[in-house]
Amino acid sequence: MGGTLFAQDFAEGLTFYHEKKYDKALIAFEKAAKEGNMVAQYNLGVMYYKGFGVEENTAKAYNWYCKAAEQELPQAEFNLGIMYVRGHGVKMSDQQAFSWFEKSAEHGLADAQYALGMMYLSGTGVRPNSHVAEQWFDKAAGQGHKLAQNRLKKLRKNR
Known about the structure:
Blueprint: H1 2-18, H2 22-34, H3 38-50, H4 58-70, H5 74-86, H6 94-106, H7 110-122, H8 130-141, H9 146-157
C-alpha cells in the first residue's frame, strides 16, 4: 500500500509542478522522496536549485540530487556534475564534475556523454584523449544530440 501512496504523491506532485503550483508540488514530492522515489528526489533538487516555489538553496538541491544519484538516476548525476563545473553550492572541481558526468554518461544520458566528450577533448579534469572524446560524442550523437553530432563532424573532418 505504501508504494501506491507514494506513487500517487509523485503523480500529484508532477501535476502540480507542471501547473506551476510549486507549493503543492513541494509537499507531494517530499512525501514521495522520503519514501525513496528517485524522480521525486531529483525534482526537489531542481526546485531548490532553481528556486521554484522555494528559496534557492544549493545545499538542499545537492542533498536531493545525491539521494537520486545514489539510485543511479542519470539526470541527477549529470546535475551534480554541473554543480561542480560551475562551483554552484559546492567547491568547483573538474575532477568531481568528470566523475559525475562519467557515471551519468555510462547510464546513457546523452548530455553527459557530450559533456564527457568535451572534457576528454579539452583535457579538463582528465588527461586529453581525442579518441575517447570521439567515442563519447558518437554515443551522444547516436541519441540525436545535435551538439555531439556537430562536434563529431568537425573531428572527423579535421583528420
